[in-house]
Design a protein that fits this description.
There is one protein chain. By secondary structure, this protein is an alpha+beta fold. It has helices at about 25-35, 35-40, 100-110, 125-135, 170-175, 190-195, 210-225, 230-240, 245-255; strands at about 120-125, 140-145, 150-160, 165-170, 185-190, 195-205. A 6-stranded antiparallel sheet has the order 1-6-5-4-3-2, with helices on both faces. Strand 3 (about 150-160) and strand 4 (about 165-170) form a beta hairpin.
Length: about 260
């Protein structure tokens, strides 16, 4: 089955990063590799920039917030994970033990509010566990981004235990091991059992994606793995890719994108 028509040589390398490769259905590999370059090309004028340090500004609305200083965290130039790897890299979890779920949510959202290229979201603990469990079984999916009269395609890969990496499908087709991440999404489930809460962090680390597009992609990705109907498509894509109808998927996703 060809994705949006056209033919591209199959890639023999299936892992986006230097981590151990994720085992992937052979037909899914073919589906990922067969998208038309013309219809999934990155927007003109966009080039990858040299990754930069991640800096977190202390919000003026919180006095002595329980967040750590992260100026030492650096974005890596390869496709290993680029954002904070653990919740403790962002949040001093020992200082929030006595706080309620609602209070922690407010702290998290307020801390990330107004930060450039960074978004903070939250999920119920049970829903986050569902997302992570499903992602471990179905690590790949595609996400169209619509601009003007056309679209380009993003591919996501889950890396256990908590992280998603997203890159241009075009770059993945050319060489998965050299594809540079556009954004990363971390689902921290540390508080899922004690507070019924998971804290989500979206880092937009490349100029190829606009701020609002990155936020939409993060929301879509979480919905794809948490919503029963949407996950049927993710499951189909990973387990029975020959039955995945790309055209129908694009039509439905375009309706919800705008």
């Amino acid at each position: 089955m060809m994705l949006l028509g056209g033919t591209v040589l199959l890639s023999k390398r299936l892992a986006m990063s230097s981590a151990a490769p994720i085992r992937i259905h052979t037909h899914t590999s073919r589906l990922l590799s067969s998208a038309s370059i013309d219809s999934t090309r990155r927007p003109p004028g966009i080039r990858f920039v040299k990754p930069h340090d991640v800096h977190h500004r202390r919000p003026s609305t919180i006095s002595s917030p329980p967040f750590v200083t992260t100026s030492s965290l650096q974005i890596r130039s390869n496709f290993s994970y680029a954002g904070p790897r653990k919740l403790q890299d962002i949040l001093k979890t020992e200082l929030i033990e006595g706080k309620t779920k609602s209070e922690i949510q407010d702290l998290w959202l307020t801390y990330h509010e107004g930060k450039e290229k960074i978004h903070g979201l939250s999920l119920d603990g049970a829903k986050a566990k569902t997302v992570l469990s499903r992602a471990a079984q179905c690590p790949f999916f595609i996400h169209p981004v619509f601009r003007d009269e056309g679209h380009f395609m993003i591919v996501s890969q889950f890396q256990a235990p908590n992280h998603f990496l997203l890159a241009f499908l075009e770059d993945y087709q050319m060489d998965p091991s050299r594809a540079q991440p556009l954004l990363t999404v971390s689902v921290f489930d540390d508080l899922a059992d004690s507070k019924d809460l998971a804290l989500v962090r979206c880092d937009i680390i490349n100029q190829g994606i606009e701020e609002d597009e990155g936020y939409k992609l993060c929301q879509c990705l979480l919905g794809d793995y948490s919503d029963e109907d949407d996950f049927r498509l993710v499951h189909l894509f990973n387990k029975k890719p020959d039955a995945f109808n790309v055209d129908e998927y694009l039509k439905e996703r375009e309706k919800s994108w705008k």
